[in-house]
Each structure stands twice: as C-alpha cells, then as structure tokens.
C-alpha cells in the first residue's frame, strides 16, 4: 500500500466500513441512480448526442466503492441492449466484494472488478476508455491532480470523465466536527473505538452546532456506521468550491464541459432583481457559477463532466428535426403533470425549491416526448393539433433549453 499515513488510514477505513453501506439482496427490488455516470447524461453531456448507440462503450469506474455508479451504468447498458464493458477499480477488497455480489444478483455480464490502487493506474496496463467515472474519490486522495492526470491519460480520443467532489458551503458544520473528533478520537486509535466516540458526540451534540442547521445530508447520517465514519472520521476530506474545482481540472490538463445541473449554477434564478441580473450578464460563466454557489449555500458536492481541451463536442442542438429528446429519469408525461396552473415547473436544487417558468405549450410538448419521437415528429404532431410551425418553434426551443439546463430532458444518442 502506497501513500502517507492519512492515505493508509483511509484504506483501512474502507476495509472496515465499505461505503456506502449496501445489501446485494436489495438489487432485486431497486436500482440506485444518480450522477455522474448516468448513461443518458454521458450520451448528451460527454458525446453531444452524436456517438452512435451501436458503438461499444468502454468504461472505467475509478474507485467504485460498493458499486452504485458501476451497477447503474452496467445495468443501463444491458437494459438498452447496448454493447459495452465496465471495469471497476478499487483498492478495498471488502467494497469490491459487495459491488461484485450486487452485479451477480443482477446477472450482469458486462462488468468486471479489479483490486487496484488509483495512484498506480499507469502500471495496470488498462485502457483506453471512452468514459471514466470518478465519483467521490479525488477529494480523499493524497495527490488529486496527479491522479486525475493519470486518468486523463487513459481516455480514448473524444472521451470524457465524470467527477463528483465535495463542496465546502453545503458541508458547513462537517469540518468543525472533524476537527473536534481528530482530537477526541485520534486516527491512531482503533476504528471501532473512534466510531464509538463519534456516536457519543452526535448523541450529545450542542444545539448550537452548525451541523444541526445543515439539512444537506441524508445518506451519511442515515447510512449506519459506514456513513457516519465517512462523514466525521475520514482522515482526508477536501472540499472544492467552483474556482478550486476548475483549477483542479485545468491543472490536470482537462476542461469542464458541464456542471450539473447547469441551471443550478445560474445565479439569475436566485436573483430576480433586474439590476443584479444585468450585472450577472457581464460576468464570465465560471464567475457566475461561483456566485450561485456562494448565494445558495447548500451545494455539498459538485458534479462535472470533463474532457480534454478542444475535444468536447458542440452542445447538441435540441431544435434539429432529427434529434430525439428523452426524459433523463422521470417520464416526460409525469413532468407535464407537475406543471402548475401558472405554467411553472417545481424543481429542487437540494433543499432549495424553485419554480421554473415554461412556455404555454410545454405541457403538450412534454406529453409527446417518448424517447423515440424526433423533434420533427413532435412538430408534426403539434401541427395536427393546430399549432403552426411559427408557434411551435419558439415554444419548443425555450422548453427544451430550460429542461436540458435542469438535466430533466436530454437528447438521445443516435442509432
């Protein structure tokens, strides 16, 4: 095992408390989905809805843990009948065992597991990969820039990486408790003893503690021993605000193609004042994103799709007649039913609820999205209902652009 004392302690942590805690038997009744690594997101945000579904997708999950992202993507490929293979790396034998058991319950034949340290990927003889998933990993590593550079070296031309890292503002209160527990339960003590101290602290946590006011945590606080240990006793836990994440990515020879959801990083949604919006319009995109992060205060992670500079495809055109819109997860018809009488769609950025205005035709347009009908087909269906092209085009353009920025509707990969 390589790395410093904190890195060795981290490796021991995930052997003792694989995270997140998962039971393979639950694979019979549920599929955990999320970002990054969702197949429809990869098609849209990484490949610009231009990479054929018939082209095999070579995937590396760099630090798969107990397998949430890996199982999701392998299952989505299998369900869609798409060719591809998912290779999962993790140095925790215990975590890999859980992920492998989950795959076996599902009967997935397009996934493999390998015990390996991400700091040594250059010596593994693997790659290239069209997509690399690195979710919840870099912020724990001793040299995140170096590791990300090593992963970038494994990318096939035109490929991309999905990242998730912790963000500081939405984790307010966490680092205070980590500091306290570093003194109350030093890392040199046995893991079980440290966990006992953390439980006792949580039972007696003063009401003034900032963590009480932070409602941005679910899995960590309800995820048993593994969740609590990962939140409060992790020996290395960095957080990146938007500028720091951008620096990490660019210092690793990559570029951010997309922050998810894009609308979440638009401060105009939080500032209805016209003069403030005028100021925002003059700001560079990443400065705007930094403003949104600081104003909202509830981002506890950042999710980004990144590519090599100059290799990101142009954003897919949702107005192209041949384009096929598809709901990311919730059926489009259900989205339509959520539109209120005022024509707005409720949307939650974590615990921040907003209402997103949509064109008057949005409800009817959403009802026509089935993952197979093209934009041209939607236009024809609306024409048959009496909606002329001059009415359809702006309504569709605005509806599609809004829902894409919310990551609710995306464009499908071509056949």
Automatic annotation (TrEMBL):
<keyword id="KW-0808">Transferase</keyword>
<dbReference type="InterPro" id="IPR013217">
    <property type="entry name" value="Methyltransf_12"/>
</dbReference>
<dbReference type="Pfam" id="PF08242">
    <property type="entry name" value="Methyltransf_12"/>
</dbReference>
<dbReference type="InterPro" id="IPR029063">
    <property type="entry name" value="SAM-dependent_MTases_sf"/>
</dbReference>
<feature type="domain" description="Methyltransferase type 12">
    <location>
        <begin position="61"/>
        <end position="160"/>
    </location>
</feature>
<dbReference type="GO" id="GO:0032259">
    <property type="term" value="P:methylation"/>
</dbReference>
<dbReference type="GO" id="GO:0008168">
    <property type="term" value="F:methyltransferase activity"/>
</dbReference>
<protein>
    <submittedName>
        <fullName>Class I SAM-dependent methyltransferase</fullName>
    </submittedName>
</protein>
<keyword id="KW-0489">Methyltransferase</keyword>
